[in-house]
Design brief:
about 290 residues; 8-stranded mixed sheet; globular; mainly beta; about 10% helix
Amino acid sequence: MAAVVELITYPVKGCAGTSVDSTHLTPAGLAHDRSFMVVSVDGVYRTQRRDPRLALVRPTVSADGSRLTLASAEPEGGHGAVHLDVTTSAPRRDVDLFGATYQGIDQGEEAAAWLTDLLGTPSRLVRVPPEHDRKTDGLTPGTSGYADSSAVHVLSRASLAHLHTRLAERGAPPLAMDRFRPNIVIDSLPEGCRGEDWAAEPHAEDRIRRATVGAAELGYTKLAVRCAVTLVDQEAGARGGPEPLRTLAGYRRFSAGGVVFGAKFAVVRPGKLSVGDEVAVEEWGDAET
């Protein structure tokens, strides 16, 4: 049986994730996922591609979304933490995400000062407005907050294990799952592995077209094209060497450009998700190449 073995939400785009045992899957993804974003003073999104120190920000958001804590993962003597009352009523401002204009609600001077100090560049924090109505593309249309594209990123442990084999052939060490920033990690449960054990097959997630997970349903949108964020050591908040992109380029090149690892999904039916939930594939397709 294939099952959810990890659930990770990323309250602030580009910052560290928070592992949870259970959560609600909303139309825009896991609860609070990418509902905040760090931007320049001009409103342009910040990303680990240019600001790898974003990985050092450990956000925690209350269940109702009314409180946000930003803590620094730096050693003692670092930047400490800031505790914020989230506002959804402040004036909206334009923000830029991959060249598209959306609206954001600025979260004030305390958050801006803390992020500016940690990142070493003038920054602001914005929240997705309640009326946010972003449409995402792909095979199954959907919506999301400030995620790069689709609402949910799914990755299997089998795919990561296969990458580790390829890395070892080059004499390179294994990499942590957090390099790839998935929302849902799937694996086989040994006691349920009877008959077809699809979760043990690397990149089986590429072929899923419709699946039920817990009380929710997901629809495939596209493959996850990987970028320089995968080069960032998420614990150190700094870029490492050429891996995993160098190795992925040898066997995961996408005909439309780039290298792919993992798959993106839209939320067809919201519902509760928990670690241990079965991932039941309702429809398979051919992997895109």
